[in-house]
Amino acid sequence: MAAKQFPTGIRPHGSGIKIRFTWNGSRLEPIWPRKPTKTNVVQAARLRAEITNKAKFGTLTWIELAEHFPQFDQPQYLVSDVPLFSEYAQLYLDTASIGDNTRNTYRKALMKYWQPLYATRPIDSFSVSELKQDVAEIEWSSMKTRNNCLTPLRRVFELAVDDEVIDRNPAEKLKNMRHQKPEVDPFSSEEAQQIIDYLYNRHGDSGERIYAIYAQFAFWTGMRTSEMLALTWNDIDWNRGVAMVNKARIRGQLNKQTKTKRSREVFLNDHALAALEEAKALTYQFGEQIFRSPRTGESWLTDKPPRVVFTAALKALRIRHRRTYNTRHTYATHCLMAGMNPSFVASQLGHSVIVLLTTYSRWLHGEESSREMEKLKVVNEKR
After folding, report:
1. Is residue 123 within 8 Å of residue 157, measured between CB atoms?
2. 299-330 b/e (C-beta count within 10 Å ≥ 16 → b)
3. pLDDT tens for residues 304-318?
4. HSE-CB of 273 using CA atoms within 13 angstroms
5. Residue 135: pLDDT above 80?
6. Cα gap 219→363, rounded to integer Å
7. pLDDT in tens, 242-260
8. Per DSSP, what are the bridge partners of residue 13?
9. Which 3-state string (H, E, C) describes the chain?
10. pLDDT > 70 in the chain, percent
11. What percentage of the chain carries pLDDT values higher than 90?
C-alpha cells in the first residue's frame, strides 16, 4: 500500500502499525502490535480517532493506552508525583535556545526513538545501564545518526538536573561513537570551469542564466549552500568587494545566524564579483534575495532548483557526480594549493584553523607534495 493511501496518523512500522496522536501537549507514536494489513489499518484509524477524541476531552488515561500498546503497560509508572520523561522532553523543546531547524531535528529524534520507549516513565526512574542497553539494541542507520539522536536525550535529562528533580544525568555516560567522515572530494579547476561554461552556454541570456551565476559564485566563494540561499543585496559591500555572511536558510526556514553562529566577511575575487554583476541584472529588481527562480522571481527556499540543474550538467559533461556542496571543498582546496595563508582561508570559509587543517590536510602543501615525490623518482632512476 502506498504511503499516501494510509489514513492520517497511521503508518506501518515493521510488523506493527504506528499510531500518531497528541496528548497533553506531547506527540506520541506508539506501535500497535497488529500486522499492517488493509483491515488492520482501517481498525487502527478507528482506534486513533477514539484516542484522539478522548485526549481532546481529557478522559484518556495511561491505563487505557496500556490496553492497546504494550510499551505503556508499566503500572509502576502510571501514577507518579515525579514529572514524566515526555513532559521534560516537551519542556526541553519549548525552552531550548536552539535554531528552529535544530529544534525540529531534535523533536523528530525524540519522537522516533525515545518517546515510544520512555514517554510514560518518571524522569527519576532511569539507570545508566538501562539506557546503554536500549541504545545498543536500536538498529542505527549509521553511527552519525546514533550520535545525533543521543544529543536531545542527554539534554532532556540535563534539564531535569537543572530543575533539581534528579541528582545526575544518566545519559551523560552514553558516549558518542567514532564514525568515518566522508572523504573531501573537490572538483578539479578544469571540471569547475567546464561546468560554469556549460551552464552559461546552455542558458544564454535568458533568466535561467541564474543557474550558471549560482554555480560560478559557489565555486569562487566557498560559501555554504544555506548561506548563499540567505544572501541579500544588502549583504554586499561593492566598494570593499566583500559579502557579509550572517544568516542561513535551511529547509526553507531563515536562521538569523550561520551554522557556526558567527558572522564573517567573505572577500570576493573577480570571478565572484562578475557573477554578482550578472545576477544584478536578473534579480535585483525583485527584492533583497540574490538567488531567485527565473520563472517566478521568488527567492529559492531550498537548493533543489540549482541542484537539479547542476546535477544535469555533470551528467551531460560526463563528470563524476558530486554534491553541489563540493563547490565549497573546491574553493578551499584551490586556495590552499595556491599557497594562500591557512588562517585567511579558514576565515573565508567560517572554519577554525584546526578544522581547516584537519579537513584539508592533503592539499595544505600545494605543489610541494608533487615536487617531493619527484625527488624519489630521481633517486630510483639513478639506481
Report:
1. yes
2. bbbebebbbebbeebbeeeebeebebebbbbb
3. 999 999 999 999 999
4. 10
5. yes
6. 17
7. 999 999 998 788 888 887 7
8. 16
9. CCHHHCCCCEEEECCEEEECEEECCEEECCEECCCCCHHHHHHHHHHHHHHHHHHHCCCCCHHHHHHHCHHHCCHHHHCCCCCEHHHHHHHHHHHCCCCHHHHHHHHHHHHHHHHHHHCCCECCCCCHHHHHHHHHHCCCCCHHHHHHHHHHHHHHHHHHHHCCCCCCCHHHHCCCCCCCCCCCCCCCHHHHHHHHHHHHHHHCCCHHHHHHHHHHHHHHHCCCHHHHHHCEHHHEECCCCEEEECCEEECCEEECCCCCCCCEEEECCHHHHHHHHHHHHHHHHHCCECCECCCCCCECCCCHHHHHHHHHHHHHHCCCCCCCCHHHHHHHHHHHHCCCCHHHHHHHHCCCHHHHHHHCHHHCCCCHHHHHHHHHHHHHHHC
10. 91
11. 50
Please state, in angstroms and rounded to a whole number, the distance separating the CA atoms of residues 290 and 303: 13
Average pLDDT value for residue range 83-102: 87
CA 62/CA 148 separation, integer angstroms:
30
CA distance 238 to 276: 10
Q: Report, in angstroms and rounded to the nearest whole number, the Rg of the chain calculated over CA atoms.
A: 27
Q: Per the confidence metrics, is the pTM higher than 0.85?
A: no
Whole-number pLDDT of residue 383: 53
Whole-number Å distance between alpha carbons of 164 and 167: 6
Q: Average pLDDT for residues 88-113, to the nearest whole number? A: 87
Residue 51, amino acid: I
Angstrom distance (rounded) from CA 62 to CA 332: 55
Confidence (pLDDT) at 229: 95
Residue 191 has pLDDT above 80, yes or no: yes
pLDDT at res. 369: 54
Q: Which three cell numbers stand for residue 28?
A: 506520541
- The span from the CA of 268 to the CA of 66, in Å, is 62
Q: How far is CA 302 from the centre of its chain?
A: 12
Of 363, 330, 356, which Cα lies nearest the Cα of 342? 356
